[in-house]
Amino acid sequence: MGEDITDNLLIREASAQGNRVDDKDEDLPLKTRVWNESKKLWVVAGPAIFTRVSTFGTNIVSQAFIGHIGSTELAAFSLVFTVLVRFANGLLTDKAIHIFPSSVIEPFFD
User: Fold this and answer.
1) pLDDT in tens, 4-37
2) What is the pTM of this model?
3) Where does the source fall among the domains of life (predicted)?
4) In the chain, where are the structural domains located?
5) What is the DSSP string of the chain?
């Protein structure tokens, strides 16, 4: 599996017609091709999913413990956590807008 991680998803091959995408798995059945792409996708998406779930779990556990202290403390924690998460997501969105070309980002903000 380690070798699959470093493989390019699209392989460019110079030909007489110019650059075209060479699908080396073109002769494989659809089920096998979908499985191979799914494995590569989970390598990329797995850590992002784990991060979202662990952040949500940490928030729930923290709220449960702070809720035992008092309602004022729980309200303060909820406000602070919400502001921090929104701020962090804003920074990530700002970075994504500057990293990706505008043609990729524009459909999401129309």
Assistant:
1) 666 666 655 554 455 555 556 677 888 988 898 8
2) 0.50
3) Eukaryota
4) 1-49
5) -HHHHHS-SSEEEEETTEEEEE-TTTTS-HHHHHHHHHHHHHHHHHHHHHHHHHHHHHHHHHHHHHHHH-HHHHHHHHHHHHHHHHHHHHHHHHHHHHHS-HHHHHHHH-
